[in-house]
Amino acid sequence: MTKRLLAAALVAGFLAACVASVLQFALTSPLILAAEKYETAETAGPALAGRALSNPLIVLAHAGHDQAGHDHGGEPQWQPAPGLPRLAFTALATLVSGVGYALLLGAVLVATGRTVTPGEALKFGIGGFLAAGLAPAIGLPPELPGIAAAGLESRQLWWVATALATAAGLYLIAIRRGPAAIGIGLALLVAPHVWGAPHGPEEISAMPPVFAAQFAARSLAIGFAFWAVLGLAFGWAWGAVAGRTGHPVRSGVAA
Amino acid sequence: MVAITRSLSPALVGERLSAVLLAATLGVGLLFVSGFAPVVALHNAAHDWRHSANFPCH
């Protein structure tokens, strides 16, 4: 079963990453590049990012690079070359996340003891989108580089807590059922947003607002496509892997 | 699926648990590397994906 789970997750992660990568290249990467032009235009140069600003509260997107660079004596940090290498590394990161999410999806499906079919896995995939995509985006909307934001660690902590609470809430509501489970589940769905996401200073950027709006909507759309393909592909691959390796076992039992 | 594996061998209950734990551990590890790791090179390589996937970035 371990091999079957790992194989199905690899296939599903790969297929979802293919779809999400193409969508990113078409929809979000051009917006990120456009936003970076405004980002560099607003600062006196990449090396001075975050320091040349009149308001020290602004945390510019790539100011983090420079802060991290202090650890290495201010050396320029490695980053993928523009153009094709950058797209390739984006696709690679998408693949790594895709396999990671597929492994978690498979682990949840197997742990809950569901019969894994494409339809059932799709439902869990949509749950994954709600937990890891939509719910965190309510408090921390998808951001373009160069938008002021609160400290990274506090946002990461809130993101993970929100994803976990939403996943647990959906599990209680959709699978456990029962009045008490539904009550606790609803409370878990709402709690992160009542607590509130960490927010940075509100700053007016030179970047046209339509870029940020387009980016947020496109990012969520890509997230939905990613999770839907991930779920469907996992359910399909789960059956396909068994079709190749599991048949002799089943026929042996039948005989 | 579960009913089939249980009828094959009771040991598969333990195997099911180990499969779930292994997959969950690997999955969290891969997500950490691609979405959360503070290492600058990893961040820069995964930068555009982190923004698109709405992982907190920067």
Automatic annotation (TrEMBL), chain A:
Q: Which domain of life is it from?
A: Bacteria
Pfam families in the record, alphabetically?
A: CbtA (PF09490)
UniProt name for this protein: Cobalt transporter
User: What organism is the protein native to?
Assistant: Methylobacterium indicum
UniProtKB/TrEMBL annotation, chain B:
Transmembrane intervals: 20-42
Q: Which UniProt keywords apply?
A: Membrane, Transmembrane, Transmembrane helix
InterPro entries documented for this protein: CbtB_put
Please name one Pfam family that this protein belongs to: CbtB
Q: Domain of life, per the record?
A: Bacteria
Q: Which NCBIfam families match?
A: CbtB
Protein name (database record): Cobalt transporter
Instruction: List the source organism.
Output: Methylobacterium aquaticum
Organism phylogeny? Bacteria, Pseudomonadati, Pseudomonadota, Alphaproteobacteria, Hyphomicrobiales
